[in-house]
What we know:
The chain contains 27 helices and 23 strands. By secondary structure, the chain is α/β, with parallel strands linked by helices. Among the domains are: 3-141, no CATH class; 216-313, CATH 2.40.50.140; 416-447 and 461-582, P-loop containing nucleotide triphosphate hydrolases (Rossmann fold); 614-771, Rossmann fold (3-Layer(aba) Sandwich).
Amino acid sequence: MLPSLEKLRKFFRLEHENGYNNTAIIGGMVKILDFWESEARAESVDEAVVQAVTQRLKGYEALTPQGRADSLKGLWKRLGETYPEATQKPQGQPRPQQRPRPPQQQPPRPQVSHPSGGTEGGAGDEMPKWLEPTPPTREKAEAPRPPAPRAPAPPQGRSETAPGGRTSATPAALGAQLTVLQGVGPRHAQTLGQLGMTTLGDMLYYFPRRYEDYSQLKPIKNLWVNEIVTVIGAVQSVGTRPVKNGKLQLTEAVITDGTGALRLTWFNQPWIANRMKVGDNIAASGKLTQSLGRLVMTNPDFEPVEAEHLHTNRIVPIYPLTQRITQKWLRGLMNQVVTYWAPALVDHLPDSIRTSAGLLPLGRAIGQAHFPDSQDELKRARARLAFDEIFFLQMGVLGQKRDWQSATARRFETSDEWLGARLTGLPFTLTGAQTRAVDEIRRDLIAGRPMNRLLQGDVGSGKTVVAALAAAMINQSGAQAAIMAPTSILAEQHFRSFSDLLAGTNVRLLVGDTPESEKAEIRAGLADGTIKVIVGTHALIEDPVAFQDLQLVVIDEQHRFGVEQRAALRNKGTTPHLLVMTATPIPRSLALTLYGDLDLSVMDEMPAGRQPIETFILRPQERERAYSLLRSQVKDGRQAFIIYPLIEESEKMDNLKAATEEHEKLSKEVFPEYKLGLLHGRMKPNEKDQVMADFRDKKYDMLVSTTVVEVGVDVSNATVMLVEGANHFGLAQLHQLRGRVGRGAAQSYCLLVPDHEDAVENERLQAMAETNDGFILADRDLQQRGPGEFLGTRQAGFGVLKMASITDLPLIEKARTQAQSLFEKDPNLEQPEHKLLAEALGRFWGKGTGDVS
């Protein structure tokens, strides 16, 4: 059947379910014609049929319910004379089951005499034969309809985790596609898919991004400008008029509650005038503004006061949206799914954990997270769902830790005499933090299981020396070590450091630009074992590269590599020891959660002789002071970085400085006597490496760059870091940028210039001026900006945290305690009462296996 005719049938069926009360479409059945006529003619529907539908629906409102039933039946019979397939009853298809509704949601409906005898009118009544659906196409047959189960949902709070309970309690219908929902066709389903929702289960876990509390009603006489409120009143007037020379249409309504009157306005929404009439009682919610001395509520949500207040008179959820869907439409759809399915969920957490941690049942938590009854209930719901996320993370990392601890690895014993001789040969004395890290690595290498250690150190804390000593411990037994860095220039930097620190050891460099003849020589040396240490980039994991005896893998800035890339390097050895390094200080709460499977070595001391970098915040009009410092430093033979937040000017962010335009301006107008390089992320990797190499080799006096220089580049002669638009960067990022200077013995400076005067008091910028301690700054960044910058540093397998805050240390420790206790009792979750938890844990982690594989 033609889509326009199938659509017509759907509206007729909905009108039947509503008792022929002219509510199948907002504004009455006649509103169908606004879009249906053009669609039907586009499909070449017979013009006589189009005219018949038009005439019947235009007179539909004036009929009685009985007359409406007769009219629609007659119209469908007329349509069937031209399109017989519209009236054919499907063969072997059961009549559609009506979706059950909770009793309180079933409005009373008039009983209408059916033309063929009997009555019809309730949603639960049998569908008239003339409205039976046509046989489904192959595509439609695959979509399960309806989503709701015939059995009633289990009562809230029922336990399914007792021994002998169900081993899977996920209703199968939660895996149904969204097209099973009324009003969701393939196009809407595709749009919702862009938001991450493809099944009914996805919708339950698609939580609001914020809430607006409209639950506190106020009389109109007590309203104030800028308040966000709900007002209930009777419509005094409503109409639409053109404004701005007819370019816009303004719909205005005035409502009164007996204490005063309030004007409501909507731009370019003329249909709203047809949704209300004088005398209607409505609830309107929105923000109050002032116009010509009068209070106005612009573009408010509104509903008849008899309607369920999904959008008004309550705490209203605000969901993330995409194009082609509205907040109100999605909220209504969510309510439909959450109201039915949240109570049907069986809790995966064992009763013992839920009671001990004082948590809401899962179904209630999900329901209250979407449509909370109060702020307190919302807080409790979010706490329960956040606990689940952290608990699942902890269970996952504990499992990973057990997996690598159960493996065996070669032992490498280091004598005190040997280590003492190596330390004596260094041109400097190790800090206390470096000494602790070396001792921890020694213990790992003799334990008989593969080392899996995170070496976490602030910028300039001396991680490379520790990694080189670890490689030396491996090399003394004849085994090989591989060090992988994210960029060629960083790999070259490590190559020089390792060559100096491991004098007498065959250390080689393998990067993408290595000549092919040299690559072949290196591959041969790795295969026969003559090369003991290889430093490189992704080139190390290419198939031709094979090791004779790889026993140590060191990965620098490990978050810059994917899980598969890291695993590919480890797989070139047999359970090699693993040392990963990061220069991003990670707060303790975050390390407990994201790195629970790794042993942690913290480098929180700076080598002797390092001077703190003096940091200053300058107002935009003080930029010339910064330029003066740059000139004086370059005149003394030093170099400087100038950082901008964008590559090129854009209309959206035209107030931000842009690297390419500013490079040209600085070169010609500000520093014409100096050589300025340009570096940004859109350059090819070899171009970026060349620019950095030229800057390191002093071919440029200053380097104008975006944040591509943030990690790892060591230019000891650079003493000034000027950051434009500094208020647009996070603390962690600013600290990494600042760490690009101060690598030598000379005093270094960091100058932060925000893009407007008000931003000078920015908390992040003030924190940068107060301390050089990366760990203090990391904690502040976590509090101010949330975990986003840190979450990007962890492997696949971690679900996106929707409710949990990594700043909530009490919650993390509570979840960790519960996870450790359960893991000690049943690490594989094999006991009957833990089967539901095992299923939920599998869904959370998906196919990700983490860093340890």
